[in-house]
């Protein structure tokens, strides 16, 4: 009997100590770390594809006249650039961070539904293939803008149907991922880790997951109605049959505005982890950060109409959406002030993660201020659909979501890969990105105020200088990300570099720093015993 027990123990030990190898490890991945890595690689790939489309747009706009593409292809590029960046790069990137970090931060052994986690990732691959291949379909890619407004969507070729199907798949993937995150956070926290002791990154993702479950079905409804208008004789958005194109905008933006916060709340979480670590202080106002995040999520449902001030909305509606939008600035400002207060009189050092975090705060705040300006209905009606709007949302999303992801990568990659990135190269990447970003997008504010409309392939001579500056900046920004991929990500992924200690950052706190670097395949198989702060494991 004892021999049988010994053999069983040995089998059990073998099962836990060895990770699967080869292609099966990735195709059938159920480990949260592997799935997180898959999401990250997918996100980086889509970022590069979306970036190539952006550079084609900026190359066309380098000078007046038509250089490279005709206006129809230009609109296909702007449409697919937006869809690929939002649904293919930013959202999956943050889900990758969630998969990697949430179980490590809350002391869980894995995500709650491991196989559903695998399925939610692999749903995205055919969706991405459909989006990218739409350029090669009859009539080319959809050219209705990333918002897919009717009646343009009713006039597109078959690629529009492929785009609708792809977005359904991506939406289903998001909903499954969100269910997984919610159940993991609510059910699998280590004993002693109450919700109000949970790291801010896990908190922001819990709130984001609820947002996703609330709004992804709304997008699914809008694009399904578009599909039936196209093929099944309905007239939801077709005025000839009694439909209303403006109704599409209401439905889309009821999804679309919370979506903006879906892409920024996880970024707030990452910054809330990094700033205290490099200031060597506790996060200032932890409880107020949690309440501010929740407030942003709730308010995001009542501000969608600010995208529609120029549609003939009654003055009462304009006033409501104007004031509601201005109200969102309050909890957002709470976060900014808390980060600054955390840094105040801290023992700060400026390694690359902290540089990107401070860069994020600076540039995101600029984007927030232009958002506040666009919230004013009289101003918004003037600059509606101009490059001022393009400048605003790129300041929020590129400098917001993307810079936060870079900060998170530099902060946590030693734990993922077991090696330290090259600090000098990291700083080059930061300064190169920050300067090139501002050279690209800051002039767009002036273009918008001067009246240059977006989504136009050609423009009058008066806009030539700022467009030339923006295009040069865009290529420099693009090359900065190629530098990041080739000289920072690739070497660390291949294990080249100085071996990372268990806790590479002096001020970092949290359970993720209690496991070795690189994090072993299985972590926290028995729930850890936590100290009173729920940030350390008691041996």
Characterise the protein shown here.
The protein is built from 17 helices and no strands. The chain is mostly helical. The chain has helices spanning 2-17, 22-27, 32-60, 71-106, 114-122, 124-133, 159-187, 200-231, 245-262, 265-279, 286-299, 315-343, 352-375, 377-383, 387-417, 423-449, 464-493. 67% of the residues lie in helices and 0% in strands. The radius of gyration is 24 Å and the shape is globular. The chain has a single domain (28-514), classed as Cytochrome C Oxidase, Chain A, CATH 1.20.210.10. Residues 1-16 have low confidence and may be disordered. Helix 13 packs parallel to helix 16 (423-449). GO terms for molecular function: cytochrome-c oxidase activity; heme binding; metal ion binding; oxidoreductase activity. Its EC number is 7.1.1.9. Pathway: Energy metabolism; oxidative phosphorylation. The chain crosses the membrane at residues 38-59, 79-100, 121-144, 164-188, 200-227, 247-271, 283-307, 319-341, 353-377, 389-410, 430-448, 468-489. It catalyses: 4 Fe(II)-[cytochrome c] + O2 + 8 H(+)(in) = 4 Fe(III)-[cytochrome c] + 2 H2O + 4 H(+)(out).
